[in-house]
């Protein structure tokens, strides 16, 4: 369970899309949200766009692995696709905030969790990125900037901290983390058999 968190606009979506485009072993967790779609966002691809009532039903049916209210909207991770992907031995990529990350940390799967926090090079650059993305009203951008310091204050709860200055460098760092975490002994499921076979036991 590979988590990317950051203040809004630092580059999680950019990194997630690049990783998904090149890595066949990882499945993106598509969140449900009560937020309205941005221009170009596709239901079922970027998010499942649901009504507040639908979201509440998902909560009551225990259909979400974690959920949180972020910037006045509700966001949550549908449980079934994540459990199916993990059961099939696939890695799962999450673009979620610190509240959701804390909730995943409290599940039985905590030892499967790899938490990566992405920082912007400066707050001014963060604001520039949110503005140049051209997807949100200035009031929304102001709200997200107002929350940025609070979001960043959670950096100490993550395993890896990256500064997304140059996008390609940041992507390379994410690739390196993923590679190293996949090589951990506990994640190499066929290793014991391989070693036994090599030793002729
Ligand atoms: N290293 C970078 N240098 C310059 N611009 C970048 C860099 N990384 C991302 N961006 C741009 O910054 C904007 C915000 O990036 P992105 O949407 O990936 O952020 P995010 O963390 O997913 O935001 P949110 O939490 O609001 O979904 C986008 O326009 C993206 O193209
Ligand atoms: N706890 C969760 N946070 C989520 C989830 N999906 C997205 N997010 C976070 O919300 C903010 C805003 O996202 P945006 O698409 O409106 O810009 C961002 O920090 C996301 O990481 C989720 O399922 N759970």
UniProtKB/TrEMBL annotation:
Catalytic activity: GMP + ATP = GDP + ADP
Main location: cytoplasm
GO cellular component assignments: cytosol
Keywords carried by this UniProt record: ATP-binding, Cytoplasm, Kinase, Nucleotide-binding, Transferase
Enzyme nomenclature, EC number: 2.7.4.8
Pfam families: Guanylate_kin
Residues the record lists as binding ATP: 6-13
GO molecular function, one term: GMP kinase activity
Residue ranges annotated for the Guanylate kinase-like domain, each copy included: 1-179
Location relative to the cell: Cytoplasm
Task performed by this protein: Essential for recycling GMP and indirectly, cGMP.
Recorded family membership: Belongs to the guanylate kinase family.
Protein name stated in the entry: Guanylate kinase
UniProt organism field: Sandarakinorhabdus cyanobacteriorum
Lineage: Bacteria, Pseudomonadati, Pseudomonadota, Alphaproteobacteria, Sphingomonadales
Gene coding for it: gmk
